[in-house]
Amino acid sequence: MRNLTPVAIIAFLRSMKPWKNALLVLLFVLVAAANLSDAKCQSHHLSVSLEQTLARAYLYIVFRTRWPVDSINARTGFNFCISQDHSLFQEFSEILPTRKLQDVRVNIITYKTIDELNENTCHLIALGKELEASKLIIDRVSSTSVLTISHEADITPHGGIIQLMFGEKLMPPKINIAAMRQSHLVIDANILAISMRAWK
Questions:
Q1: Whole-angstrom Cα distance, residue 10 to residue 92?
Q2: Contacts of 21 (CB under 8 A, 6+ apart)
């Protein structure tokens, strides 16, 4: 029944007796509803899959970045700063509490507005889609060892360090080498090479 076209179904219904027509109309409606439900479920799974892939891409880069020796310690941990409105906030809230970086715990530091953000406590700031807000934050941390990273806003031309790129699939990240050096961060050489080849 699912493979029949609406035109074929209508022709078939016209050839049936009235009471059978009613039953078949009901069956057609149920099948159409089931197809719509399947489509919505598939769309949801694709969305979740993309979000999970992006969250893993963030962490892949984070765990292959070195901060200055004195900036991370067991007492304070590693502070991952993220807005509560960030599109990956839920994914990071589930993943990060179980992770460690350089043998120290990873803390999630959340904020609602820029005014609530204390950049002096952050080792990383995951920037959202609002470019103007991201530019203000980048200006505030430009001379510190804070990794600024986003998959939504084009931050690298404005002093942001990493922009994750994706279309139908994840692409090599864009990396602002000058901003990385100014922050005294060291990103894995293989990641840098892939980025430079893709975006030279």
A1: 50
A2: 13
